[in-house]
Amino acid sequence: SQTIHQWPATLVQPVGSPLSLECTVEGTSNPNLYWYRQAAGRGLQLLFYSVGIGQISSEVPQNLSASRPQDRQFILSSKKLLLSDSGFYLCAWSIESGGYNEQFFGPGTRLTVL
Amino acid sequence: KNQVEQSPQSLIILEGKNCTLQCNYTVSPFSNLRWYKQDTGRGPVSLTIMTFSENTKSNGRYTATLDADTKQSSLHITASQLSDSASYICVVRDYGGSQGNLIFGKGTKLSVKP
């Protein structure tokens, strides 16, 4: 069966510090991978998605970046965090099947920027 | 503009009671609609997924309905349990882009009280 891992689970960082969040998927090959951010009282916002190694599409301009160094590894980074980067970050994977492209979410990382 | 609106924003019910959550969308062209359950501090978990040709789908005590003509969906929870306390998110997929954009509602926060 497939599983998705994210770490760390929680993170408190000062403004201006760098960020690295990691997501790995097990039990599947060549998945589509996604990074979302969920701010309080708002719906999930797609930040990045990737259809393969080294292939990253950005949905919104921001000071975040993503990388996919391996097939089942997706990393979210920032060189300098802003207060507005606080939120709940979710990684998800999917494989197109029967037109559903159902997405499966990881446990999330709660980021607080102070 | 593609939108997904959910109501009510929050709901409190007593254990054992039934409830219905609403989702209205303006997404076009429509591909499918999903309902997710998100426990506090966790990633969303899929409950149901329906294409335009499906008007009802059940998953245990959860039953989702879809009216593609009126662009409305509902999630009915029968005999609620304390563990049903969570946010329920309606998500609609359109055909836009290579990834078939997902448009997320803001969710309905359900609290089940003993």
What does this protein structure show overall?
- The complex is a heterodimer of chains A (114) and B (114).
- Chain A is built from no helices and eleven strands.
- By secondary structure, chain A is mainly β.
- In chain A, strands 2, 4, 5, 6, 9, 10 and 11 form a seven-stranded mixed sheet that branches. In chain A, strands 1-3-8-7 form a four-stranded antiparallel sheet, with no helix packed on it.
- Chain A is globular.
- With 114 residues, chain B is mostly beta strands.
- Chain B starts with a strand and ends with a strand.
- In chain B, 35% of the residues are buried.
- Chains A and B meet through β5, β9 and β10 of A and β4 and β5 of B.
SSE layout:
The complex is a heterodimer of chains A (114) and B (114).
Chain A: E1 3-7, E2 10-13, E3 19-26, E4 32-38, E5 44-52, E6 55-58, E7 64-70, E8 73-78, E9 87-94, E10 103-105, E11 109-113
Chain B: E1 4-7, E2 10-14, E3 19-25, E4 30-38, E5 45-51, E6 56-59, E7 62-67, E8 72-77, E9 86-94, E10 102-104, E11 108-113
Parallel strand pairs in B: 2-11
Antiparallel strand pairs in B: 1-3, 3-8, 4-5, 4-9, 6-7, 7-8, 9-10, 9-11
